Amino acid sequence: MIVIYFFSTKSQQFFAYVWSIFPVIAFFLVSFYTLDFLFSPSYLIMVPVFTIMFKINYKKDYSFVALLKMSIRQFVISFLAFIASSSFSWSIILNSSVTFLIVYLFYSSATPMRYHSYLMMFTFCQLIQVKGNTFLMQSQVVAFLIGLFLLALTLNAWWQTGLSQLTSLKSRGHVRFFKSIQLNMKQQKLAVINFWHDLQQTFFGITSFKQFLESPDEKVQRFRLAIRMSFTITLSFILMWSVGGIKIIWIPMNVFLLLHPVKAEMNTRIKTRFWGTLLGCFLSLFVVNWLQLPLTHLVVSSLIGIFVYALKPGTVLQVTMATIFGLCLATISLRGMYAAELRVSFVLLAIFVVCLIDLGLFVYQRILRF
Q1: Per-10-residue mean pLDDT for the chain, 370 residues long?
Q2: Closest by alpha carbon to 126, among 152, 98, 149?
Q3: What is the DSSP track for 295-306?
Q4: CA 142 vs CA 55, 72, 81, 166, 205: distances in Å
Q5: Are 236 and 127 in contact (CB under 8 A)?
């Protein structure tokens, strides 16, 4: 009886959890198949960006103006990413500057991961590998996914609150719409002024490199984090442009996934990414051998992708599923063993890049202390 009660309780908890994240699963599947059908499988790299955006925001209560601002930001960031992907020089300039600005503007101790979706958009948009890709084509994909994102949030709000409450919210929103736009324009202008003021105070207030590395001030910590992330992301793209080759985009992609504001969490991500990649590559060899047609690769990868977004992020199991998901798509055009070897090699190289920047700052700290 105890065993039956235990398993019944666990099954109830499992189905309750699945039901709670059902909107995320539905959004992932709809965006995955519509993007593949309407555009190209090469644009599927954008699906994780908007699925993560939806997973972060679908339980929050946003105004229409806030959602509009978020969408405009993402569209502008995608444009900057397209320019960064056009040449090696633009890649260095924009990856160092835009990454710094995204982290510096959106990071805070209260919301440390607020920058995540914007930096993910900027990084992943540069990894689109479509022959003859133009900004018009890319902007159509981004606009489509933004529209799908907004529609999904609206439908989820209707599902959670009911049609009557949603109608009342919309009516109140129409009344306050133009006042909100005017107020937000003033707030944005004030935010820009405060940003440059804070940046000047932070930069000119640092009298030594030791103060830059060890100061507990939140502005200096934010400045330090933005510098570290911009260096790391830029170095990963320098390697991507310098080395070249098949699936070289896995280097900056894994570097981004390893980065975290908290050093202990970043160390955990390095360990789980390493072991999860090894386990995922091993298991994928048994999966991809049974897949013959491109359609079967897409179907199996979409089913595995459900587990990627259902499991707790950063765990070994979640990274394992994410690895199998990526290899199921990669093996449409590559042999399974070759794709697995590339995956492991590029993950190791990404870990090396992250540790190199982190170790460099640590060495400078040790030198300054002695």
Answers
A1: 50 70 92 91 91 88 81 93 93 95 87 88 90 82 93 82 49 43 48 53 52 63 87 94 86 93 89 95 86 85 91 91 92 83 93 86 47
A2: 98
A3: HHHHHHHHHHHH
A4: 17, 11, 12, 26, 40
A5: no
